[in-house]
Amino acid sequence: MDYTRDEFILSTKVAITLTRKLRWGVIGSASIAVHSVIPGIKASETGEMTAIASRGIAKAEETAAKLGIPKAYGSYEEILADPDIDAIYVPLPNHLHMEWSIRAMEAGKHVLCEKPIAMNAEEAQRMADAAAKNGVHLAEAFMYRHHPRYDEIAAIVASGEIGDIRGIHSTFTFNNAGDAKNVRYRREWGGGSLYDVGCYPISVARMLLGAEPEAATVHALISPEHDNVDMMASGILEFPNSVALTFDCGMWAAFRNTLEITGTDGRIEVPSAFIGDGTYYVFTKDGKREVKQPELNQYALQADAFARNAWGERDVRFSPADAVANMKVIDACLESAYSRKRVLV
């Protein structure tokens, strides 16, 4: 078959697009990496798992063999030196996020850092500055934001179908309190429910409202049995226009992860807001509407969005500045929880 010059160029571009892969390395073998993010990268259209590193070669080789990853390294430094890796996923304990993300970016790697991106907004800003300085893409790993239902929900809100938003309520709780050695229960390492799961209700409210809260008031269960981290926290964030997010988060309570958006004329309920089934419900004067979503891998969607951002093929929706802003709110929530005072954001 004969091709014109333009047809040949187009076919070549299509072939390159179809075969192009972002080559991933992972620092550490945390549960979230092994059970969710790495399988998501492998299931994505754009990602290719290249290597994993651990603090010892035996653990790295064991995880690599289990997950079919070609390379294993016995130190984090080695994986950053690998020229065959384009991007690094950082699922380390929270207190190590800044150090290893910046070191990866200084090595020329794009970075997907597990939430919360840092221990505080100051650290997050240093990470954002490093990304800009080194010309790489930095993103916080909130996988739920890449599920198409949130674009749908935002469109429903914007359409006025449920009227003006009067409030948002969200929860994320689970019970893991018996695992006393878990890194979530090390205060100096960034342990506690606000860091671990409270960040989700905070981020979803900011995303849906397109605004930043002005103040935070949080009451928490501070547990001496768990290194005095917040094992349960209930709070209110004051947004502009007299709208509030009420939320609770916890690591010593029955499992829930919900979202409810209440308007003047209706409401939207999301029973599994962050993980689980993608179904949600819209309630208006005309009744209840169920919206079902096909089964989608949010971690694969996250990997694809990240790759296309790194390649410059898609505008960045969730910038490092957004991660810094989310950390400012978490900072205020933690200050409020420990001081038992209302704190301006």
UniProtKB/TrEMBL annotation:
Pfam families, sorted: GFO_IDH_MocA, GFO_IDH_MocA_C3
Presence of the UniProt keyword Oxidoreductase in the record: yes
Gfo/Idh/MocA-like oxidoreductase N-terminal domain: residues covered: 22-139
InterPro entries listed in its UniProt record: Gfo/Idh/MocA-like_OxRdtase_N, Gfo/Idh/MocA_domain, GFO_IDH_MocA-like_dom, NAD(P)-bd_dom_sf
Keywords from the UniProt entry: Oxidoreductase
GFO/IDH/MocA-like oxidoreductase domain: residues covered: 151-269
Name recorded for this polypeptide: Gfo/Idh/MocA family oxidoreductase
UniProt similarity note: Belongs to the Gfo/Idh/MocA family.
